[in-house]
């Protein structure tokens, strides 16, 4: 890896003001959604991005966090579809988009999915497509939470290795097969009790990751990554636990975490290794800003909260890692800039600009 890739990065500039891309005068009104029996197709405009896609590093896979957004009409979808239709049948069209070579299955975080549910996803995907899948929160959250997200009580299954294998690893392997690319263990914000016992925490995490890796002996291509929501965990002992278990650090670009340049040193300490990045939430909305971001960004068809700083440093990181022969998985949420497919297209342009300079 280039020595300068993670060093001497510029400071974070003041956030740019929100800038919504508004429809041009005379734009046609939005058409009514197609009937439920219709099957989504990929937008004709996607073909225009094939040339850009062909120039990107082959080791790079970019994609979105889920896919059931009607606002992506004429960006990803070939027409207006209801979100329920897109959730059930849209993945096949999504996978035809030249820039979208992965997707993050976030749904699995809220409750474990079955083998049949994963099989339904795999049946819509080409052989060369790979999925990023999140471990259920019943394993990765130290608290059992109420519907409003507030912690109710201590979670006795937190970082339970046996449950992680039976409720997550085995179903994903059986259902997705070769289309499984990354298993992400996102640790929700931890209780003070755990934050004050990092040695116990990292030992328990390492034991879980080792149990996961034991299930992947015949699947060495699957990456195991850990994402955190507590900056206090970005310490050498965390990296040591990941390295010992053959896992990597997932860059979690989120309001609860430091900016990308402050997370990169931990990733560098694990070199050589792949890049897994989830660009989740624009920092301008703060650590608890999902609801505000959703309100500001709906219907998710435009860049509303541009973040060129993150985009530029992420492109630089991708170029360095893939240029050294390592794989890179990058997924983007609508909450990052307002429209994940447009953010991915801009990230691709940034990568090509770096190549040309």
Automatic annotation (TrEMBL):
<protein>
    <submittedName>
        <fullName>DUF72 domain-containing protein</fullName>
    </submittedName>
</protein>
<feature type="compositionally biased region" description="Low complexity">
    <location>
        <begin position="22"/>
        <end position="41"/>
    </location>
</feature>
<dbReference type="InterPro" id="IPR036520">
    <property type="entry name" value="UPF0759_sf"/>
</dbReference>
<dbReference type="Pfam" id="PF01904">
    <property type="entry name" value="DUF72"/>
</dbReference>
<feature type="region of interest" description="Disordered">
    <location>
        <begin position="1"/>
        <end position="41"/>
    </location>
</feature>
<dbReference type="InterPro" id="IPR002763">
    <property type="entry name" value="DUF72"/>
</dbReference>
């Amino acid at each position: 890896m280039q020595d300068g890739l993670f060093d001497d990065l510029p400071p974070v500039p003041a956030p740019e003001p929100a800038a919504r891309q508004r429809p041009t005068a005379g734009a046609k009104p939005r058409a009514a959604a197609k009937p439920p029996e219709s099957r989504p197709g990929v937008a004709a405009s996607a073909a225009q991005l094939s040339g850009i896609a062909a120039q990107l590093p082959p080791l790079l896979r970019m994609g979105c966090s889920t896919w059931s957004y009607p606002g992506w009409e004429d960006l990803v979808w070939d027409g207006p579809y209801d979100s329920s239709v897109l959730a059930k049948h849209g993945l096949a069209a999504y996978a035809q988009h030249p820039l979208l070579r992965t997707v993050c299955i976030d749904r699995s975080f809220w409750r474990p999915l079955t083998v049949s549910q994963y099989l339904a996803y795999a049946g819509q995907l080409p052989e060369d497509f790979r999925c990023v899948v999140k471990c259920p929160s019943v394993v990765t959250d130290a608290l059992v939470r109420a519907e409003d997200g507030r912690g109710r009580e201590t979670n006795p299954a937190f970082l339970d290795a046996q449950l992680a294998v039976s409720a997550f690893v085995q179903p994903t392997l059986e259902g997705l097969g070769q289309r499984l690319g990354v298993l992400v263990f996102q640790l929700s914000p931890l209780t003070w009790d755990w934050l004050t016992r990092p040695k116990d925490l990292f030992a328990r995490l390492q034991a879980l990751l080792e149990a996961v890796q034991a299930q992947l002996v015949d699947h060495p291509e699957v990456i195991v990554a850990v994402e955190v929501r507590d900056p206090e965990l970005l310490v050498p002992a965390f990296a040591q636990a990941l390295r010992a278990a053959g896992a990597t650090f997932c860059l979690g670009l989120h309001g609860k975490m430091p900016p990308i340049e402050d997370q990169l040193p931990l990733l560098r300490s694990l070199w050589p290794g792949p890049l897994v990045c989830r660009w989740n939430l624009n920092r301008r909305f703060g650590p608890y800003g999902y609801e505000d971001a959703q309100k500001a960004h709906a219907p998710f068809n435009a860049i509303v909260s541009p973040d060129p700083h993150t985009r530029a440093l992420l492109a630089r990181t991708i170029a360095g890692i893939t240029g050294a022969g390592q794989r890179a998985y990058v997924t983007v949420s609508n909450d990052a800039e307002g429209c994940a497919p447009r953010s991915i297209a801009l990230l691709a342009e940034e990568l090509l600009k770096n190549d040309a300079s």
